[in-house]
Amino acid sequence: MELPLEFKTRMKAMLGDEYEAFISGYGFPAVRGLRVNTLKLTKERFLELSPWRTEQAETLFEGLILTGEAEHIGTHPYHIAGLFYMQEPSAMSVIAEAEIEPGMKVLDLCAAPGGKSGGIAARLEGKGLIVSNEIVPSRARELASNLERLGVVNAAVTCARPDAVADALPGYFDRVIVDAPCSGEGMFRRDPGAIAEWSPEHVASCAARQSAIMESASKLVTPGGKLIYSTCTFSPEENEGVIESFLAEHPEFSPEITKRLYPHRMKGEGHFVARLVRSKDGTDRVEKTGKRGRGASKPAGMGPADAASKTLALELFSALITEPERPLASLLKNGDRLIYCPFDSPEGLNLLPIVSMGTEVGTLSSGYKKSFVLPSHSFFMAAHGFEYLNTVDLDVVSPELKRFLGGDTLAIPESLSGFVPVTVGGFPVGFGKAVGGVLKNRLPKGLTVPGLR
Q1: Is position 354 within any domain?
Q2: Which domain holds residue 325?
Q3: For labeling, which of 14, 268, 318, 373 is most exposed (least CB within 10 Å)?
C-alpha cells in the first residue's frame, strides 16, 4: 500500500515516536466490526446466536469486533432480520459520545448509509424522534432501507441540503450529529480509492465544506442541547481546525470533549469526535431564523387516518398481531398508504423532501368484493411495534429459509391462512400469504437473495 508522501510527512510530525507503530499498521488488514441492534435483541442474546468469533469493541457496549472469518455475513439471515449492522469500530464512538436518552429529538445531518442513525435509534428505544438526513437521493433511499431492516419506527428520512434543514427546523433538536464528509484518511486500509482521491487540496476543500455544514448545524440545536462533530480522517485542518473556527464564531457553544482515535492505539481504523454544548440561554440564533420548527403537525399530504381506513386497518391487525388496537392511535394516511407514526413530527418537517417517515403499514386496495389493506414489508420488520399471532418460523440453516429468501414459495400447514410473517428464531425476515398449504412469497424483489449460502 503506497501512501501519499505529504500524508506520511504530516503524520510523522504529529505522532513523533508513535509514527512507526502507526505506519506499520497499514501492513495489516482493516478491522471489521458489527453493532448489535438492541431494538431487536440484547447483546447477550446475540452472542448466544452468533456463529462468528467476536470480541468486545472498545468504543461501544453493543459493538463487537470480528476476530475470525465471516464470509457472506451481509447475506446471512440474521443480517437480513436486522439483528446487527456492519460498522467500523471507531465510527461507533459517535453513538456513545452523543449521550442519547430515550425520548430525545435527534438529527443525524449527514446520515447515509445509516450506521450511526441505527445506533442512535436503538438507544432511543422507540421513543422520541430521529430525523436522518442525506443530501444524495440514492444514498437517502439506501438509508431508509437500512432503517427499515433495523426495524426503526420513530424516524423520518429526509433528502435536503443542511442549510434547508436549518431553515426548516431551527433550534428543535436535543442532539445534532454531524458525521462530516471528509478526506477519508481513516479509510485507507479499507478503500484504496480514498488514497487515490487524497491530496492537500482535497483536505482543504473538505475543511471548507465541513465548516459550512457546522454553520447550518449550529442553528438546529436547542438551547442546552449538544452538537457532535466527527470525521474518519486525521488531518488537523478537518478536525481541531474546524472546531476552533466554529467556536470562535459561536460563543454560545462550548467544548465538552475532543477525542482522537488512532488505529495503533485501539482496534479500529481511526476517528475524530468532538462534543459541544449550547448554552441554555443561547436563543439569539434561533430567533433570527424563526420558530417554524417549534410546533407539531404532519407533512404535506399526510394526516390522521379516516374512520374507514382505520376499520380496514383494524381488520388486518386483528388477523396479525396480539394488540390490534394499539397502532390505530398512531395511524396516518398519505394517499392510499397507511403509516404507523408513533411520534409528533415538527411543523417544519413538511418543508423538506421526505423519503420515508415512521413505518409503512400497508396500502389501501380494492378487491372483487371489498376493500382491504395490503400489508408492507416494513410492517413485519418493525421493532418496538408488534407481536404476531402466527408465524412460519424456520431454522437459520434450513433449506426452506434459503428458498424463501431467494423468493420462492413454501409448503406450510393448511391451517394457516392470510398474511403471515416468516421468522428465523422468532425474528421476522419477511412475509407471505398462506393459501391452501402454500405460502406465496411477498418479499420485495430488491431484497431477495438468490443462491443464498
Answers
A1: yes
A2: 295-363
A3: 318
Nearest to residue 157, comparing CAs of 146, 172, 167, 173?
A: 146
* Residue 155 lies inside a defined structural domain of this protein: no
Q: What is the pTM of this model?
A: 0.94
Q: CB 329: neighbour CB atoms within 10 A?
A: 10
Burial environment of residue 288 by CB neighbours within 10 A (0 to 12, 13 to 18, 19 or more): exposed
C-alpha cell at 65: 469486533
Residue found under cell 396480539:
322
Contact 158, 355 (CB under 8 A): yes
Give the closest residue to 345 by CA, choosing from 86, 82, 105: 105
* Greatest extent of the chain over all pairs of C-alpha atoms, in Å: 79
> Rounded to an integer, what distance in angstroms lies between the CA atom of residue 2 and that of residue 8?
10
By CB atoms closer than 10 A (0-12, 13-18, 19+), residue 280 is exposed
pLDDT digits (tens, 9 = 90+) for 240-276: 999 999 999 999 999 999 999 999 999 999 999 999 9
Q: 324 preceded by cis ω (within 30°)?
A: no
Cell of 4: 501519499
Please give the helix or strand (H or E) that residue 7 lies within, else none: helix 5-15
- Given a cut of 80, whether residue 289 has pLDDT beyond it is no
d(CA 43, CA 113): 22
Pairing of strands 221-231, 271-278: antiparallel
Copy the grid coordinates of residue 227.
452538537
Domain count, the chain: 2
Helix (H, G, I), strand (E, B) or coil at 21: helix
Among all residues, which ones are annotated catalytic? 232
**CA nearest 172: which of 37, 346, 18, 313?**
346
Q: What pLDDT digit, counting tens, does each position of 43-80 carry?
A: 999 999 999 999 999 999 999 999 999 999 999 999 99
Rounded distance between C-alpha atoms, residue 123 and residue 245, angstroms: 31
